[in-house]
Design goal:
The chain has 347 residues and is α+β, with helices and mostly antiparallel strands. Helices cover 23% and strands 33% of the residues. The two termini are 32 Å apart. The protein binds adenosine-5'-triphosphate (ATP). Adenosine-5'-triphosphate binds next to strand 2 and helix 1. This is ABC transporter ATP-binding protein. Keywords: ATP-binding, Cell membrane, Ion transport, Iron, Iron transport, Membrane, Nucleotide-binding, Transport.
């Protein structure tokens, strides 16, 4: 493995930022650390970079112990590239000088210039090599930060919320470009993000964290389709949660009965109905509902639907080409295999 954390714990006074975290990242793999603010993502990244020393446990790079209480390799000797949320470009240096800076002490003078220019061209900024950071847009600054980090060809690239300062449209473009560049360079990469879409679009594997611990590790598809808990499920989808009791292996709800595998008979459970899993059918078929609000979102409509016996509204996304109006009666078809069921309180 390229990078591994072995039982890493990190305490800051009373706060346990990481609690015995173990994780192996394979060479060339892109891993996203995903979780809410304060769950320990950045601390894990800082331990890999060597700007923090663990309270307990080991960090291994290429199988070598670089950060245990007994041995420590300084950040600049780890061969690790860093990209920060605020890009951390030197304002008084040009784009070329910023990227060259990352090569100092690794590549001799003339070769450094050529290497830096190649990295700048690779991120599409050849024309801006002599510009200063304040003359660049946010997206361009992010590309410079990326070029600076990859130019020395680090074995491991660590990125902390690299897209969070970009607006949505630019974010999509820069994220896809970054994914392509990471694939091309083959660098083992760890990306910290709180955005599940970022994680799903860029990472081979996602590590979902909570309160200093790993909740689940898997591909985006696994985490989305087979979340280990209600907490994990909520992270990836804004579904309608419906409480009910388990009776003969299924949870009974106003929307129907949904299989509750492995849950105790008579226990309280939560069924999670994904907005796009619900099919709208003509009234008189399936479960009756009434459209309370309808918002046009472009490719799909977002509907809130009232259903007898449910005191909130069911959230549905469907492409209806404007045929449905508010107040209209409809039928609802909810395929049981699209509904996730968890024990109540499994958060
Ligand atoms: N140097 C420090 N001193 C004291 N507490 C710290 C320090 N660094 C982090 N913490 C605490 O450790 C916990 C984890 O912080 P960390 O920055 O790793 O979380 P995060 O998931 O990256 O959050 P964010 O997305 O907000 O950056 C938090 O409770 C934080 O307040």
């Amino acid at each position: 493995m390229a990078l591994a954390f072995d039982g890493v714990t990190q305490r800051f006074g009373e706060v346990t930022a990481l609690n015995s975290v173990s994780l192996s990242v394979e060479p060339g793999e892109i891993v996203a650390l995903l979780g809410q603010s304060g769950c320990g993502k950045t601390t894990l990244l800082r331990l890999a970079a060597g700007v923090e020393r663990p309270s307990a446990g080991r960090v291994l790079l290429e199988g070598k112990d670089v950060s245990s209480p007994e041995s420590f390799v300084e950040p600049e000797r780890r061969g690790v590239g860093l990209v920060f949320q605020d890009y951390a470009l030197f304002p008084h240096l040009t784009v070329l000088e910023n990227v060259r800076f990352g090569l100092q002490g690794r590549v001799p003078g003339t070769a450094a210039e050529a290497t830096a220019l190649r990295a700048i061209a690779r991120v599409g900024l050849a024309d801006l090599a002599q510009s200063y950071p304040h003359m660049l847009s946010g997206g361009e600054q992010q590309r410079v930060a990326l070029a600076r980090a990859v130019a020395p060809r680090p074995g491991v690239l660590l990125m902390d919320e690299p897209f969070s300062n970009l607006d949505r449209r630019l974010r999509d473009v820069v994220r896809d470009e970054t994914a392509a560049l990471l694939q091309e360079t083959g660098a083992t990469s760890i990306i910290v993000t709180h955005d599940p879409e970022d994680a799903m679009r860029i990472a081979d594997r996602i590590v979902l964290m909570r309160a200093g611990e790993i909740v689940q590790i898997g591909t985006g598809e696994t985490l989305y389709r087979q979340p280990a808990s209600l907490f994990a499920a909520r992270f990836f989808c804004d579904f309608t949660e419906v409480a009910g009791r388990v009776v003969r292996g299924a949870v009974d709800t106003p929307f129907g009965r949904f299989p509750a595998r492995g849950l105790a008979e008579g226990s309280e459970a939560v069924a999670c109905i994904r907005p796009h899993a619900v099919r709208i059918v003509p009234k008189g078929f399936c479960l009756p509902g009434r459209v309370v609000t309808r918002r046009f979102l472009g490719e799909v409509d977002h509907l809130l639907i009232a259903v007898d016996g449910f005191d909130r509204l069911l959230s549905v996304r469907a492409s209806l080409a404007g045929v449905l109006g508010e107040g209209e009666d409809v039928g609802l078809d909810i395929p049981t295999d699209e509904v996730l069921v968890f024990p109540a309180g499994d958060t």
